[in-house]
Each structure stands twice: as structure tokens, then as C-alpha cells.
User: Which sequence fits this backbone?
């Protein structure tokens, strides 16, 4: 699977549950825990952070 397809799948997963997309991108790293916190504070901040992490890492 190429990078663009993987990114698209992670973004689709992030639309459902933002931390899942971040987990598949970086694992249980700092960004994962930040995303959990942001998602608990609100869906939109968690989603924006997830998309940012997914697109930034490539």
C-alpha cells in the first residue's frame, strides 16, 4: 500500500475516532496522548490534530 492510500485510510479512521488515525500513524507516542486529550475536550480539536499529525509525518 502506498503512502497516499495509507494516509487516506488513516484520515477516514480519524473521521470516526480521531485517536485511532493518530495511533496508526505514530503509535502510543506523545501525539497519541495529546489527541486523546483534545478529543475528550471536543471532537473538532481532536479531528484537526489527527489530520495535522497524519499529513505532517510524511
Assistant:
Amino acid at each position: 500500500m502506498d503512502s497516499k492510500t495509507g494516509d487516506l485510510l488513516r484520515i477516514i479512521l480519524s473521521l470516526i475516532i480521531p485517536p485511532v488515525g493518530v495511533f496508526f500513524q505514530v503509535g502510543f507516542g506523545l501525539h497519541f496522548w495529546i489527541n486523546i486529550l483534545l478529543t475528550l475536550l471536543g471532537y473538532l480539536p481532536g479531528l484537526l490534530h489527527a489530520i495535522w499529525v497524519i499529513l505532517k509525518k510524511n
Summary: The chain has four helices and no strands. The helical segments are 3-16, 18-26, 30-41, 43-56. The chain has a mean pLDDT of 93.
